[in-house]
Amino acid sequence: MSYMKKFNIYIGLICSLFLLSIAACDTENTGAQYEDNNENGSVSFLWETSSVEYLPDATVGSIDVIRANTNGALEIPITATYDEEFFTLPASVKFEDGSGKASISFSLEKLELGVTYPIMFAFDSLKVSPHGYYKTTVNVMKDYVWKSAGKVSFESSWAGTTADVPIEYAEGANPALYRLNSPYNILEPDYCPKEIGRAS
Q1: Is 48 helix (H, G, I), strand (E, B) or coil?
Q2: Which pairs with CB-CB distance under 8 Å and at least 24 residues apart come from 7-10?
Q3: Tens digits of per-residue pLDDT, 13-54?
Q4: Under 8 Å CB-to-CB from 11, ≥6 apart: which residues?
């Protein structure tokens, strides 16, 4: 065997051993992170940002937290940034044994109608499940009861179309409040999807 062939074989063996060592290190690191996440509960919020509207007579609101491992009860500390004049929030979220979902509840009794109140929740990022959310911002509002006030002619400034669209008034509002009920859903249904319903 020539010197050049021996040299190429040695280089090939060295490169193979180097690649195997890298693969082994990556596997160990991935396994350790996955085990730590499972040990910490693999929790996650459902959304990074969300908005929730409640009816005027609602007294309690909530957001859900999920986990991957449902074995055993679990309590996870949480932090929250909010207006203390209107909310009182717990310091942790608790999962019952066998449950993959838990709720963080908060009172709505001090909220003014039609005003949006943001709350930011978070827990330690090391406790988050893969591809999950360790923090979330929830925009909470108690909305008026809106009732029909008939229809009005509405012209789209950007589409140049005109149609009769529903107009509504807020029951009990002083001064009176009116709104157009999704006019572009009627004028441009191909571009504007229907609204999502609110929480009760």
Answers
A1: coil
A2: none
A3: 344 444 444 444 443 433 333 333 444 458 999 999 999 999
A4: none
